[in-house]
Amino acid sequence: MGFIERYGEAKRKKKSVLCIGIDPVSQFLEPGEGAISKRYFETASEIDGMFEFCLDIIRKTSSHCCAIKPNMQFVMAFGLERFRKINSLAHEHGLVSILDNKLGDIGSTNKSSFYWAKQAGFDALTFSPFAGNIAEASVEAHNHGLGLIVLTLMTNPEAKYFMREAKIEAKPGYAWIAEHIGKTGADGAVVGSTHTTKEEVAEIRKLIGQDKVILIPGIGAQGGDLTETANAFGKNVLVNVGRGIIYAKNPAEEAKKYNEMLKALFA
Length: 267
Known about the structure:
44% of the residues lie in helices and 18% in strands. It contains twelve helices and ten strands. The strands form two sheets. It has an eight-stranded parallel β-barrel, surrounded by eight helices. Helix 2 (46-61) runs parallel beside helix 4 (80-92), helix 5 runs parallel beside helix 6 (134-143) and helix 8 (173-183) runs parallel beside helix 9 (198-208). The longest helix is centred in the N-terminal third of the chain and has 16 residues, at 46-61. The two termini are 25 Å apart.
């Protein structure tokens, strides 16, 4: 079973398109409310406290989501065994797990990352298209039983210079990327909910095809709004919410609230 099928099964069983972005900010990095509560470090080391926080978030939110997305920049200190435990717990709760590492390099380097991502138990990973080797990476990811979700139109405003204003073969960057996702075996696109128009979303969906998954970041703390663009995204979506849920006083209740909102938008 490929990633799109695993995603579809999780979506149906969980009745959700919500993806929880697991971005655990250590109190030692950034003290305050936008970080993991100090209580996780009272009897544990920094890394063990962060790890337990991630497991706790999965347990508390899994009834209301179909996927998790750990961001490598926040969890790189965990190591293989902790990743395996995170993914094992996610799978026990019927979720798919996406490693957000924005991989993008030459073939041999990518191959190593696919190998270790699979060893760690992930179902898919995010991929940067700027090395140009989307087709090759798609084949190699699938050889390792992984899905490949390609950065297409990102949320940060500066991405416009490469993904919107830059022209590749006379097309906007995002359109060239989306076209190659559609032509190759890549499993989906990352398309932000902020600074993105309904027309751009519709074009991306047309180019990649209806069966591919669109991973949508930017909802919650980043201020993204899907009210005007939801119909253009199609049905195969994963809407990522991170800080707005994981640092809430009641993550389960907040996840439930987002899930109900998304059901109304993507019914």
